[in-house]
Specification:
23% of the residues lie in helices and 32% in strands. The chain is an alpha/beta fold. It starts with a helix and ends in a 6-residue tail after the last helix. It is elongated, with a radius of gyration of 22 Å. It has one domain (3-146). It has helices at residues 3-16, 90-105, 151-155, 160-163, and strands at 24-34, 40-51, 62-74, 80-85, 109-110, 128-132, 138-142.
């Protein structure tokens, strides 16, 4: 059973049963074990959606995916028999919220107004965006990366990269 099939089963389950512990993709299959009764137990890495800031009206309905381990059991007919995941880790949720609020504050999330101070220099290129998932929920997703290739930032003002010279006498 592959990750795409498990994501499809999780989405179908979410449509039938509402649960605060709903898992969503992307899913990574970690291990799989076929049982003697025709069931298959699959250990996965999935995501649990965490609200970025329930107290801020601009961010209350925006979520960030938090990776979580889980186990799904698929019956011999290919239907989802059960889903087991650990209860939410409060510290991991706190860190995910802080990370997302930092992204928003620095202007790194397209679709949300930056809430931090205006930086000098060129504008920050968005590395994330708010997208709607298959259930209509607003989720922050990564869309790219940035890199600082400024020689002054990497090597300091006396860098040979800036002067082009050497210290040779």
């Amino acid at each position: 059973m592959d990750a795409a099939e498990i994501e499809r089963l999780l989405d179908a389950r979410r449509k039938r049963v509402a649960s605060a512990a709903d898992l969503t993709g992307p899913v990574t299959v970690l291990a799989s074990d076929a049982g003697p009764d025709g069931t298959t137990r699959v250990d996965i890495q999935a995501s649990r959606l965490v609200p970025v800031d329930p107290d801020d009206p601009a961010l209350a309905d925006v979520c960030i995916p938090l990776p979580v381990p889980a186990t799904v059991v698929v019956d011999d007919a290919g239907h989802l028999a059960s889903v087991e995941s650990a209860p939410p880790d409060q510290e991991a949720e706190r860190q995910a919220r802080a990370y997302a609020r930092n992204l928003v504050a620095t202007g790194a999330v397209r679709g949300v107004t930056a809430s931090g101070r205006v930086r000098r220099g060129p504008p920050t290129r968005p590395t994330h965006e708010v997208a709607l998932d298959g259930q209509g929920r607003k989720v922050i997703r990564r869309v790219g990366f940035t890199s600082a290739l400024d020689p002054k930032a990497q090597h300091g003002p006396t860098s040979h990269h800036e002067t082009g010279g050497t210290d040779d006498a």
